[in-house]
Amino acid sequence: MTNSDNLTAAISINVRNALEEDLGTGDLTASLVAADANARAIVITREPMTMAGQPWVNEVFRQLSPDVNVEWFCNDGDHVPADAELCIITGPARSILSGERTALNFLQLLSATATTTAHYVQEIKGTMARILDTRKTVPGLRLAQKYAVRCGGGDNHRIGLFDALLIKENHIVSNGGIASAVAAAKHDLHGVPVEIEVESLAELREAIAAGADRVLLDNFDIEDLQHAVDINQKDGNPPAGLESSGGITMKNIRAIAETGVDYISVGALTKDIKAIDLSMRFYYED
After folding, report:
1. How far apart are CA 16 and CA 60, in angstroms?
2. How far is CA 12 from CA 9, 189, 244, 255, in A?
3. Which among 283, 286, 279, 224 is positioned nearest to 255, based on CA atoms?
4. How many CB atoms lie within 10 A of CB 80?
5. Whole-angstrom Cα distance, residue 250 to residue 273?
6. Counting Cβ atoms within 10 Å, is residue 51 exposed (0-12), middle (13-18) or buried (19+)?
7. Contact partners, residue 243, CB within 8 Å, separation at least 6
8. Residues marked as catalytic
């Protein structure tokens, strides 16, 4: 199954679960509306945003009724000003009413992730560093939020524990040290790069000597990050990719990027976000 197939399947599952959660045995309030009534609804953003979530909104109304049509005025990844109209939804009034909250929930959450990501990406513009997400995602919505990160111009770290190696502190302890942990990873031949987390410059030297492909620099300050870049370039081994992680904020990310690290992983992209303020204006049609 391709990544595209995985995402398509995830969208269907995400939407089905969300609708089941909201509708239960049926929408009692929407049933007050005549079964043959049609409506038109316009979704508007109340604040500037980077859009993400279009496929989830489409899927909400596809699952509710084949007669609902969603026409978009912008695309995922677009930067949209405040008060812009995002889409117009037409069709059976009951179906639009029943899907309103679920559709907006997806669009608000995913656009929030995309918007936050875009802010971080803009902040380090002109450097060589790339913004990465983490596994600190809303349970059940990991592929959705990682999609939103890409819409905001960021890159994805590993999807889960199955598609990349990241040797962290407890793995190192369990393997008896950095060198033995990297050697075990190389021996297992998973066919993926070996990344290891370090907490000091001495551990960085061990990781480079052991042949790690990427090193995660955990909570290094600016001075130590600069030393780490120098060590990585001068130690006589093929340079590893360097990833800064821990305590990353909009206030310090520019300085971190300017040290010369290759990647900066930011948990806030998917964890510390505020939903975008959207509204849906509803109009009945004859």
Report:
1. 8
2. 5, 34, 35, 41
3. 224
4. 20
5. 13
6. buried
7. 132, 195, 214, 215, 216, 217, 261, 262, 263, 264, 265
8. 101, 136, 168, 197, 218
Do residues 134 and 35 make contact, with C-beta atoms less than 8 angstroms apart?
no
pLDDT, tens digit, 9 for 90 and up, residues 40-68:
999 999 999 999 999 999 999 999 999 99
- Which CA distances in Å does 241 have to 68, 111, 194, 204? 48, 30, 10, 11
- Report, as ranges of residue numbers, the positions in the chain whose pLDDT lies below 50: 1
First to last CA, the chain: 45
Type of residue at 67:
D
pLDDT of residue 156: 97
HSE value, Cβ hemisphere, 13 Å, CA-based, for 197: 15
Q: State the Cα–Cα distance between residues 208 and 187, nearest whole angstrom.
A: 17
DSSP assignment letter at 130: E
Q: What is the pLDDT of residues 84-104, one digit of tens each?
A: 999 999 999 999 999 999 999
Per the structure block, which two tokens stand in for 145? 């939020």
* Helix spans in the chain (H): 3-23, 54-64, 93-123, 142-151, 169-175, 178-188, 201-210, 222-234, 253-257
Question: CA distances (Å), 82 to each of 49, 54, 115, in order?
Answer: 7, 18, 13
Q: Which residue has the tokens 């060198």?
A: 179
DSSP 1-17: --HHHHHHHHHHHHHHH
CB under 8 A, 24+ apart: contacts of 164-169? 164/192, 164/193, 164/195, 165/190, 165/192, 165/193, 165/194, 165/195, 166/195, 166/196, 166/197, 166/216, 167/194, 167/195, 167/196, 167/197, 168/197, 169/197, 169/199
